[in-house]
């Protein structure tokens, strides 16, 4: 799928490029980012990890759409949607992170809003959702600000750093 570039006054959302590996490594290699992501997100995050991530997402083997958040020519974060694998796509699950240096400027609130709008309109999705650890107030707020609702608590749902944890489920459905 060819992703259109989406622009705001603060950043651009555009497809991944091979040349993003250095910048992705620099921004992803942060404990405070990794602790809020699934166990598959590496820490420390190496250049090799970034290369592998870009290769995998560009191959689209797992049904992910991945947007890079570009600021001043640098890939400073990623917003992904994991689409359902039925014949007809109708829902997607968000995953996102932003380099720590860029936190608290409203960037992810805008990015999730822009990708949601595009996914409902252009992909004609019926549902978007996201899994959030109980301590991740920032991510919960990003979703609530974009009209997502807390749908429930998924008990003993994921393994994270050797522990089985509950996660909050947030969702938004097409109007
Ligand atoms: C969560 C994350 C994506 C937020 O990105 P961001 O661009 O800093 O978010 P925003 O600036 O849009 O902030 C959204 C709101 O959350 C609030 N917020 C941010 N971090 C917070 C925190 N730790 N505790 C409480 N509120 C927080 C902001 O103040 C803002 O609210 P406001 O609009 O009322 O001021 C970013 O911190 C991050 O990448 N974290 C690590 C990875 C991660 O958590 N990914 C999501 C996994 S579900």
In summary, what is this structure?
InterPro entries: Acyl_CoA_acyltransferase, GNAT_dom. With about 180 residues, this protein is of the alpha+beta class. The chain is about 30% helix and about 35% strand.
Give a written overview of the molecule.
The chain has 175 residues and is of the alpha+beta class. It starts with 5 loop residues before the first strand and ends with a strand. It has helices at 21-28, 31-34, 47-59, 107-121, 137-145, and strands spanning 6-7, 12-15, 64-71, 74-83, 91-98, 127-133, 149-160, 163-173. The protein is 28% helix and 35% strand. Strands 1-2-3-4-5-6-8-7 form an 8-stranded mixed beta sheet, with helices on both faces. The chain contains 5 helices and 8 strands. The model has no long low-confidence stretch (mean pLDDT 96). The protein has one domain: Gcn5-related N-acetyltransferase (GNAT) (Aminopeptidase), CATH 3.40.630.30. A hairpin with a 2-residue loop joins strand 7 (149-160) and strand 8 (163-173). Coenzyme A is lined by residues 33, 36-37, 96-98, 103-109, 130, 132, 136-139, 141-142.
Oligomer: single chain
Task: Determine the strand fraction and express it as a percent band.
Answer: 35-45%
Counting H and I runs of at least 4 residues, what is the number of helices? 5
Low-pLDDT windows of residues: none
Q: Report the count of strand segments.
A: 8
Compute the average pLDDT. 96
CATH class division: Alpha Beta
Q: Report the sheet with the most strands, covering strand number, pairing sense and barrel closure.
A: 8 strands, mixed
Q: What coarse outline follows from CA principal-axis ratios?
A: globular
Distance N to C terminus: 24 Å
């Amino acid at each position: 799928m060819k992703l259109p570039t989406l622009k705001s006054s603060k950043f651009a959302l555009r497809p991944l490029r091979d040349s993003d590996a250095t910048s992705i490594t620099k921004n992803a290699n942060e404990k405070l980012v990794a602790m809020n992501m699934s166990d598959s997100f590496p820490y420390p995050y190496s250049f090799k990890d970034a290369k592998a991530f870009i290769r995998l997402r560009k191959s689209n083997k797992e049904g992910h759409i991945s947007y890079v958040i570009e600021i001043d020519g640098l890939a400073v974060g990623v917003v992904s949607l994991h689409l359902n694998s039925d014949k007809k796509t109708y829902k997607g699950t968000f995953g996102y992170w932003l380099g720590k240096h860029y936190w608290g400027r409203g960037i992810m609130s805008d990015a999730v809003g822009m990708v949601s709008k595009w996914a409902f309109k252009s992909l004609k999705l019926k549902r978007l959702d996201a899994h959030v650890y109980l301590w991740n107030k920032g991510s919960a707020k990003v979703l609530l600000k974009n009209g997502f609702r807390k749908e429930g608590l998924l008990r003993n749902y994921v393994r994270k750093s050797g522990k089985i944890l509950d996660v909050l489920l947030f969702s938004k459905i097409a109007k």
